Amino acid sequence: MRTRKTLAVAVFFAVMMAVLLTGCPLKDPEMKISIDGKEFSLDCKVQELIDAGFQIAATGSPTTVIDEADYPVIQARLMDSEFYYLITEDGLPCDVSFHVYNNDSSDLAFTECKVYLFNYDAGSYSEFVTGNPETAEVLLNGIDFKFTDCKETVDALKTSGFKFKDSEVEEFCADDMYGKSVIGPTGLSSHNLSIFHDYDYEKAVVRTNGFEISLKLKYEFKDK
User: What does pTM read for this prediction?
Assistant: First the structure.
């Protein structure tokens, strides 16, 4: 009779053989970012963000919203490193920035380019507890990162299908100013995910305060 360990090994090799024979890689867990109640995935077009009612700003301030006539043209085969920020229709900051890329052989209008990175940064915990200005709600796979408990947030990501090294989770969740401030899951093939926290020196606690998701693009891009 096979032991559980023997069965587990057999299943693992069966899965790996299926991947090799079919050429189908194991899929990463789904990543959906919800901003002010509207949901997006990486590789969405900028136009989708605009159609959902968002304004685009050159910095995180609502006062620097870019007029449509001033949207840039993105060069062919370019991963644009510029940060663009999302502002709600009502002028509410979202604390979300993004990068775009153009893999086309010709230049593209900004609105036709695709998003390869979303970054959410809620700021510092000390400012939050003393009355942080109102911002739009931002979730990743339905998970809140706005100064939430580190362990609960990591556990929610695990439930969402992500895997983490136990030792890194322990360091990330410890109320220790010298612990890991950024961690990411293991085994992702086509995406990157990092989550980060802020340390409050006065209260000596850590709280998650953001994440970054991006595509592992395999195209050949040129320098800007």
Answer: 0.86
